[in-house]
């Protein structure tokens, strides 16, 4: 059975709502626009749903001029975020163990997010010349780099992996809970674990590390309510040491274009 891409997703502002695409440009650091923006506090530490689950209620859309950011519950006018920052305020932003340069987008964006989230918040953009290398332990060329994503340019998950999990859950979950960039049909549950080099469309990728999941997966993206699943159930069959694994992290080997419906061609080792 062919392995076919069924979803392409980007998350332009880290930890906010995703955007489903029919096609996407694969760039060095991941899909175009994916996690090129991040929210940070006054100490330049990145902010995510891990400490503020209300971020799940903020949606992001693409327009010809930039991003349109809106809140699903609060009566506040949408925020327009241009593709190019409106300030020259460069700051070093901390993402986990990495520190990378970001450019503050605008006073308007900072005011919008501060009002919506209730804490002093700033929006930053990663310019092209801000390079954040990926973990050298899982590198191929030692030149790979990424965006404001947790650690790698892309994440891939198979539909059957989610089906296998849902068969064990009392309440089924949608794939958006796991925030993958690529979703595919075909194969067997957790086949993505074994993906090494593969191509899709005109791009080429390498699977380098299984994705360790965190409490963010326990936040319902529709309601921002937190629970115990899916980590409680995944821990019964997807635990390795103290890590719970679901999905495969990818590096970009060759840039190109991918489209929903493209076949994933696995390469022999």
UniProtKB/TrEMBL annotation:
Highest taxon of the lineage: Bacteria
MOSC domain mapped to chain residues: 126-267
Record InterPro entries: MoCF_Sase_C (IPR005302), MOCOS_middle (IPR005303), Pyrv_Knase-like_insert_dom_sf (IPR011037)
Protein name as annotated: MOSC domain-containing protein
């Amino acid at each position: 059975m062919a392995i076919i891409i069924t979803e392409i997703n980007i998350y332009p502002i880290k930890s906010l709502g995703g955007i489903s695409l029919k096609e996407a440009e694969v760039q060095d650091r991941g899909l175009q626009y994916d996690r090129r923006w991040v929210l940070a506090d006054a100490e330049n530490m990145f902010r995510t749903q891990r400490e503020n689950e209300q971020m799940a209620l903020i949606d992001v859309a693409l327009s010809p001029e930039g991003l349109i950011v809106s809140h699903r519950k609060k009566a506040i006018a949408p925020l327009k975020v241009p593709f190019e920052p409106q300030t020259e305020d460069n700051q070093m932003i901390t993402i986990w163990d990495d520190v990378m340069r970001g450019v503050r987008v605008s006073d308007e964006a900072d005011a919008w997010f501060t009002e919506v989230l209730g804490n002093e918040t700033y929006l930053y953009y990663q310019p092209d010349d801000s390079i954040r290398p990926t973990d050298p332990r899982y590198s191929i060329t030692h030149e790979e780099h990424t965006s404001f994503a947790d650690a790698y340019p892309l994440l891939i998950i198979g539909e059957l992996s989610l089906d296998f999990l849902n068969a064990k859950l009392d309440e089924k979950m949608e794939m958006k809970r796991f925030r993958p960039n690529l979703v595919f049909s075909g194969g067997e549950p957790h086949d993505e674990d074994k993906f090494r080099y593969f191509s899709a469309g005109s791009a080429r990728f390498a699977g380098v590390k299984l994705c360790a999941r965190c409490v963010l997966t326990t936040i319902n993206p529709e309601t921002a309510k937190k629970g115990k699943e899916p980590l409680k159930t995944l821990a019964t069959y997807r635990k390795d040491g103290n890590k719970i694994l679901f999905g495969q992290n990818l590096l970009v080997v060759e840039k190109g274009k991918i489209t929903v419906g493209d076949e994933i061609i696995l390469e022999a080792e």
